[in-house]
């Protein structure tokens, strides 16, 4: 049985202090989402005197304006996120495996290019990319948005897979090769299952980016019925005034699917990040 000592109290106080920067924005978002419109103008740190859940139903019904409904925006975000994650895993995993197992100069050059792409801002190529999407008819479509997000997140995914594959011992692959397995079968049945932790990390990092991104979505599908959740929530931001209660109520609704997913996959996500950091 552990005794409660001064050191235990110090650690608990330190954890609470460290949690303040995380909990404070959540408190602000929830209290503002529950605050009636009349109280918003004089908002303070105090909880709302007359909390209401009407902001959530109003946000659901009015977000997106005449362009897209909140439900359609939720569906668009879900489809986009799922397709981007699936394409990234399907393309980045074999690419990372090939770069990790081949020691040629070309492989090193390609790895360097992927690393360089991590630090280049999207704004450098935004205009030519948008012109290309318009000329090919992909602008304003979910397919075009998926391709853009996949291209943006591919360097990160390949970088993570390459580093993880390089850290794996080749003994299992060599044993499978001796047994007569083909390279594709070795990758699919031996190497890929061993990098499940980094697959979880790739899915979480890229999925959160796509789900929360506003800039790319508003540029490519902003005024269409393919708009995503961040764009729909932004419809409450006016030129001269903003109803922050509705904005944060919509943001809270958009946060619920992420929290539910984390609740069901908490163990896998924790193990994935832990294994990747230790690896």
TrEMBL record:
Membrane topology value: Multi-pass membrane protein
First-listed, main subcellular location of the protein, grouped into a coarse class: membrane
Coiled coil feature spans: none
Transmembrane regions listed in the UniProt entry: 12-30, 79-100, 112-132, 138-161, 198-222, 242-264
InterPro entries registered for this protein in UniProt: MetI-like, MetI-like_sf
Subcellular location: Cell membrane
A Gene Ontology BP annotation from the UniProt entry: transmembrane transport
Signal peptide limits: none
Alphabetized Gene3D superfamilies for the sequence: MetI-like
Transmembrane helix is among the record's keywords: yes
Protein family per UniProt: Belongs to the binding-protein-dependent transport system permease family.
Protein name listed in UniProt: Carbohydrate ABC transporter membrane protein 2, CUT1 family
Record organism: Thermomonospora echinospora
